[in-house]
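FAQ
Q: What does a multi-component entry look like?
A: The components come first, one per line:
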Amino acid sequence: MSAEPIATFESSLDEVGVELVRTSADQFESALTPLLDAPAVGASLPFENVSLPDAVETDPGVEKLEAAKTGVTAAGYGIADYGSVIIQGGPDGEEPASLYADEHVAVVAGSDVLPDMDATFDRLAEDIRSGTGQAIIATGPSATADMGALVKGAHGPVEVTVVLLEDR
Amino acid sequence: MSVDTRQRKAERIRHLLETEGDSVHKNTQVFNNGRYESTADLEDYEALKDEARAIKEDAIERLPELVDRVTETIEANGGTVYVADDAADANRYVTEVADGRDVVKSKSMTSEEIEVNESLEASGSDVWETDLAEFVLQVADEAPSHIVAPAIHKSREEIAELFNAYFDPEKPLETAQELTQFAREHLGEKIADADVGMTGANFVTADTGTLALVTSEGNARKCVQATDTHIAVAGVEKLVPRVEDLQPFVELIGRSGTGQDITSYVSLFTPPGDSPTFDGDGELGSGDDREFHLVLIDNGRMEMREDDQLRETLYCIRCSACANSCANFQHVGGHAFGGETYSGGIATGWEAGVHGADSAAEFNDLCTGCSRCVNQCPVKIDIPWINTVVRDRINRGTDGDLDFLVDGLTPDEEPGGVDLQKRLFGNFDTLAKLGSTFAPLSNWVAQTGPARSLLERTLGVDSRRELPAFERESLVEWFENRGPRVDPEEARRQVALYPDAYTNYVRTERGKAAVRVLEALDVRVDVPAAGESGRAPLSQGMVATAQSNAEDVYDSLAPAVAAGHDVVVVEPSDLAMFHREYERLLPEDEYAALKDRSYEVMEYVYGLLENGADLDALPEGDDTRIAYHSHCQQRTLDLEPYTVAVLEDCGFDVTTSDVECCGMAGSFGYKSEYYELSVDVGEALVDQFTTENTADRTVVASGTSCLEQLDALLARRPAHPVRLLDTR
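Then the predicted structure of the entire assembly, as tokens:
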């Protein structure tokens, strides 16, 4: 993966108010820890030699989910042009963990940062045809202007952070 | 239309201007400006629109096949597809599935169209709207006023007042943050308790059975995740063939709607999904037993598909760009546009198709045909044309009994029953000819109290408007007496100056200026006696008369066109007829010949100067300060820059307005039922021309209507820009 999409990704994320934290597989836990506000929930990560610390509850009940301050999940890929991440929700609970907590931390592999929407839809089409039941193109925090002014954090997270695994 | 009906309409509009106008104006401006900015960032905006259009054309063409395909796919995935003939059929199915269980909904205008909430509640379900705007409307018991932001007409203060009265919270709610947090918590409980999640769908892919939902709040995700039965309600036109087809729409819909490059969430659900769901015990249980029902709504759509004029409506992706760019909508909002469900812009097509012409009829006139929406539509629907066609059908469906009163004045092609007011304005050419023949007597008579009172009572011509004063000598007569001044042998070009009805009979000075300016640049000018372009009848929905006028105009201009001369047009709305509407009114070759040869006058001057004409033949601007208002249809044709460039090249100091329309829009501002809205829209332009930087500037405007409006609302007398170039 060339550096260019990553640089574009970072500036696009910045435009939608999302911080990018660059790290590597072996530094992941120390990069993640400062981002965790307790209680934290999450869904197990699919990256080799990368796992969630014990402080992150991966099998929460409804009450813990709704009380969570941080939700950590993998994101299948990122879109450099838009600063979006694709949350693929499956039985491990990526969807609720990324949706209910105040802050969503999305973990993306550097090699999964795609340049644009064209490339994204090629990949999405392939994934959906092979059984991905749910893919959310998520860009920045949830938001609404329905109450007379722009408010971040409507039904979903108030804040989003992307952790990039540069060596994955 | 009776005097009472006009008064009732005027009162309704006045009420909405007072109560909802400010909120709607503020919010639509954000969307409208956002769209211009966001689409400007797209390198391939036009190509994406073409791609989106092509996908929709193909999908609607193959719709029955796509319905079969999606049914097969979703059933193979373990879901159910039900194609509902109409609202009652859909509601029967949905209530059977819900079976009295509690329902949480995300925003769906199609569910508003079928009024499913009422059916569900009648069958014992509790139904909660979880989109915050829909929630506000549910609490307020009001109808949406905008297809994307349904509570756009409500201010924060009004929402706070509503919530405080309805929910009586311990501490009164005040800020948008507090209101949002309160709604989130309130609805969070409803979502956790509900069994059925109901969503709409912005798109449905036939190949994989994927629903694409474009949202920002996250409530649609929760409604699907937290429940174990998902019902999606979608118009059958939402089908696209393949997942890849979603790409241009995903890039266009947020930009076109709220002016965001992309909304927070574009959810691609291929149900039934396997995300864990809430079980009854407060645990996250397996989502493997989810039920999924896709209800595809016909409700008139398959008939629209067979209708050559309304079919385009089905390409609509309901982004709201047409409403946001509509000057009238910006000022008065969707509640003024009538319609049972949809309001503003393309809504006329939807209402005519799904609820019938009656529902589209009442405020169909609020589309003035300014065409500002045309370039904004991501699927390139000619929305003004759809409004015109629906207006024509409404006209033809009306019985009339007063035709004898205006028959002499209205030699049109329309059947009896067309509203008298419409026939009067639609036959402006005849009126102007008579007015000119009897001027100045006709002008004196028309301005008298009794005449104005009669005009207002019988024809709804508002007596607060000054009527156009007809010139005794028309432009054509003036030119016949004067003759051409440039020898064809020595001429740089030869042109036919088209004498539109206003330039010919009312504002002859701008026609004379145009002749002299062109001659100063060594152009041989003729002014053939061509009639009204058809713009006037078309704006009243009198399509047959417009067509007949178009044919006559073509016959008058054909010799010049055949001789290789150019056609120069002063009035932008008539040039727009030649370039846009004539495609539908004339044979293809005639349309193409006239379009290729016709130019707006300042555009033509620009072309002459670019091709070697002598700038010194035109007057020096000497930094004279000018405020220029281009014309709505001229801007749609992207012809504003030529006027600015010519004036600047001549040394004028030019600033421009950026309102979508002056609000006058031909006959619109004369009609007593719309006078106040017209003035309200015009005031926005006046505001731009009375700032510190503009208040001392000479005002010029290209359109007749714009000149009439500015003349009425500004202390300075405006003129057509070509007059700045005239040495006389």
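Q: Is there any commentary attached?
A: Sometimes. For this entry: Residues 518 and 605 of chain B are 7 Å apart (CA to CA).
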